[in-house]
Amino acid sequence: MIVSFDANILVYMLDPEAGERHAMAARIVADFALTGGAILSLQAASETANALRRKRVPPPTIRAAVGRLRDGFEIVPAQDDDLDDALWAVERHKLAFWDAMLWATCRRAGCSVLFTEDFQDGRTLKGLRFVNPFAPKNARYLPKA
Question: In the prediction, which pLDDT does 121 show?
């Protein structure tokens, strides 16, 4: 199983003020980084950096956080065909455009799970399942504690 993460999960991981979500996101991301069972889309890394900027995190801290993500995961950028797939998902499945781009890139990269709070939990679209890691019913997708 190859997984990836939406920016919201990464922001929780990096924000100690996020309480239980911080602890869980940090554990999940770290466990998948150690096992090598995850990729990170360039889009999610970029959205994470932008979210941290909006939270007024100092730029050197943002660069360091993004650097740790880059060290821990293969970074996968979008490709031309991902745009066509994303536009299909927007039209046929009513995904928001940037969510559709994330879906298309992760799907092409071979992911079977995208951890996110923003998509319809449990939905599978062309082999990629959207999983809210904070929902107790999804524990089977998480590394064992």
Answer: 92
Cα–Cα distance measured from residue 97 to residue 75, given in angstroms and rounded to the nearest whole number: 20
pTM over 0.85: yes
Identify the CATH number of the domain defined by range 3-141: 3.40.50.1010
List the domain boundaries for the chain.
Answer: 3-141
Distance of alpha carbon 24 from its chain centroid, rounded? 14
What residue type is assigned to position 39 of the chain? I
| pLDDT < 50 stretches in the chain | none
Residue 108 and residue 127 in contact, taking contact as beta carbons nearer than 8 Å: no
